[in-house]
Design brief:
Layout (H helix, E strand, L loop, with lengths): L1 E8 L2 E10 L2 E8 L4 E3 L5 H7 L3 E3 L6 H6 L4 E2 L1 H4 L9 H9 L2
């Protein structure tokens, strides 16, 4: 199953995408206007090569865990928006929602 959700962060909306996988934790993304928060399934090396703003949180099973989890990796582009390793996912998504 694929789930799409609107996530309200202080009145600003992010898009959540959850893909259930057989015998495995789900693939998760939270997308903002300037970048996205991703689970450990996605490859940070590819993100870096593409020059996109992304941060990675691993070991999560739902959006709530992503928002309260600690960022483990950050792309160079995301760093230009103030994203740093160790930040909470919610704070990262808020930065990605800024215009």
């Amino acid at each position: 199953m694929i789930y799409v959700a609107q996530l309200n962060l202080n009145g600003r909306m992010a898009l959540g995408l959850k893909v259930e996988l057989p015998g495995s934790p789900p693939l998760l993304l939270i997308v903002g206007k300037r970048g996205f928060l991703m689970c450990g399934y996605l490859n940070m090396e590819s993100v870096e090569k593409l020059g996109v703003a992304a941060a990675m949180i691993s070991g999560v099973k739902n959006f709530e865990e992503m928002l309260h989890g600690e960022v483990k990796a950050v792309s160079s582009k995301a760093e230009t928006f103030g994203v740093k390793k160790g930040m909470l996912g919610e704070d990262v998504v808020k930065l990605f929602l800024e215009t």
